[in-house]
DNA sequence: GAAACTTACATGCACGCGCATTGGATGTCA
DNA sequence: TGACATCCAATGCGCGTGCATGTAAGTTTC
């Protein structure tokens, strides 16, 4: 019974790999095609919109980093992209001028809300009932 | 009950993301540090070694591609890397000169066998009992 | 059997990632 | 106060990936 467990971990890993790749590819493609958003970009918007409900969620970079599976540098550039697209604004923090606050712009909020159904649909296709 | 299902798919996806990232990062790091192998490289060796048991498994590129979550171009380059390291050899197929056969070299076989315990250990740490 | 199509693999290219480093701000200790 | 460690974010760099394309070899159609 213990020997069989070896096969199990491989199988579980293969299955995880399959689900991850299928889902992330489709998410990436759909979000890009329909909303001009990468998956990382979307995830940032998602967290920001959760942060402060509606009307401009804000969060520090460090907090975002902790909630995402993205390195500090990758996150920094993702935010740069979002900022360039006008979906997010950076603001220095008064209390700690090393830190940066992020704020969702109205346009960012709008884009996120538009993309959310696409996101859900894809997830439901892969995990749904 | 149906409304809750929406939360479920997100949760399932988050969980998949977490497991995938944690596991693949650790696999990548451990394989690289201990055996100078990337995860993609290892997966190719793994399939090849399964293909024909011991003594030089061989397979066509197309078959490999079908078994991996890797684009055709990425696979081609992965094999180039493996070939450069002497772990694999390319051979043109007599019957179809477009196709390439891949063969595990003794060195490749050895490297794979050495790396396998590392691979298993990591998987067991993440999926085990 | 020649032209049109398809298939297998390699390669140019752009992009996003992680690692390491940098630069500026903050905290600490003597 | 001055020296040093720590922290936050940005950036240089190299790498692996996917997409689009190129090239050569097989297949189909007439």
From TrEMBL, chains A, B:
MF (Gene Ontology): DNA binding; DNA-binding transcription factor activity
Protein name from the UniProt record: MarR family transcriptional regulator
Short name of any one Pfam family annotated for the protein: MarR_2
Keyword set, alphabetical order: DNA-binding, Transcription, Transcription regulation
Hydrolase recorded as keyword: no
GO aspect biological process, one term: response to stress
Domain HTH marR-type: from-to ranges: 1-129
Region forming the signal peptide: none
Organism per entry: Glycomyces albidus
